[in-house]
Specification:
By secondary structure, the chain is an alpha+beta fold. Helices cover 24% and strands 27% of the residues. The termini are far apart.
Length: 187
């Protein structure tokens, strides 16, 4: 155990998630299993955490309620209009959404631009059909510890974060699809 800045003790533990096929380092602080501020950038901490619940973009935006997708695999993609790889990822997300039954899989794109106009111009350019949630204050992105664009969070049918993909790389599409297929095939 080591002591944090706030005086609380932190216990570090290795967590081998054999059933998921993922190794992640988890940190538990007291009884609160939410990641403390000083580890906000560590995406491996997300693996295994429950994602279903309410996350709000801001008071003027429609809330994102992930609980309504319980029983489905959720591909939650964070993007911005200034992000070049995001332009490449949108056709891929459209293809994903069309490849799986709607009762088993959903793609949701979360935009983090401060300007809704820039986001809308980007969407017009790429011809996006997937549902888009606007998060100009970064509240949803903060909840998922997003630090790079794009970042995709794969949530299993049980609401637990199972995989996190930072960036979008054509040479990793097979890996992305393997992760998605694994989760869609789980019952």
């Amino acid at each position: 155990m080591t002591k944090t800045k706030g005086g609380r003790f932190m216990r570090r533990q290795r967590d081998a998630r054999a059933d998921v096929g993922v190794r992640a380092e988890s940190i538990a602080v007291g009884w609160n299993h939410a990641a403390p501020d000083w580890v906000a950038g560590s995406l491996s901490l997300l693996v295994g955490l429950v994602a279903f619940g309410q996350a709000y973009a801001d008071t003027s935006a429609k809330p994102l309620n992930l609980a309504q997708y319980r029983g489905k695999v959720v591909y939650l993609d964070f993007w911005a209009s200034w992000c070049a790889p995001c332009k490449l990822s949108f056709p891929y997300m459209e293809q994903l959404a069309a490849s799986y039954p709607r009762d088993a899989f959903v793609v949701i794109a979360v935009n983090v631009d401060h300007s809704r106009e820039r986001a809308d111009a980007f969407l017009s350019q790429v011809g996006a059909e997937v549902p888009v949630v606007y998060d100009p204050k970064g509240q949803i992105a903060g909840k998922f510890h997003v630090s790079e664009m794009p970042t995709s969070v794969l949530i299993g049918r049980d609401g637990r974060v199972r995989y996190v993909h930072q960036g979008f790389f054509q040479n990793k599409i097979t890996q992305y699809e393997t992760h998605i297929q694994e989760l869609v095939n789980e019952k």
